[in-house]
Design goal:
By secondary structure, this protein is mostly helical. The chain is built from three helices and no strands. The protein has one domain.
């Protein structure tokens, strides 16, 4: 009986230690979520505008549609590049929050 109690305590201790080390607290995730949600919304709006551009210009002709699609690809690459450039600061900020 005593041995079982020891293993139960050890398992609870290891679970709490794992949770503290890898999962963290709710306040941290709330602050990260407050930083991430505007970025998600901005990306959704940008993709939605690109889709609407394709739909509107698609009614004019195929050559125009091709031009808009190519420009939208450049805009996407530009956005990904900016996202990568500012990610370092964002990751640093998240690390400071933790």
């Amino acid at each position: 009986m005593c041995l079982y109690g020891f293993f139960f305590f050890e398992r609870r201790y290891m679970t709490a230690k794992f949770r503290d080390k890898f999962i963290g607290d709710k306040r941290f995730y709330r602050r990260v979520l407050l930083m991430v949600v505007p970025m998600i919304l901005q990306n959704m709006v940008t993709n939605f505008v690109s889709m609407i551009d394709n739909i509107m210009v698609g009614q004019i002709g195929t050559a125009e549609m091709s031009g808009v699609s190519i420009v939208n690809q450049f805009v996407f690459v530009f956005n990904i590049t900016l996202f990568g450039a500012v990610s370092g600061g964002r990751h640093l900020r998240c690390a400071v929050l933790r």
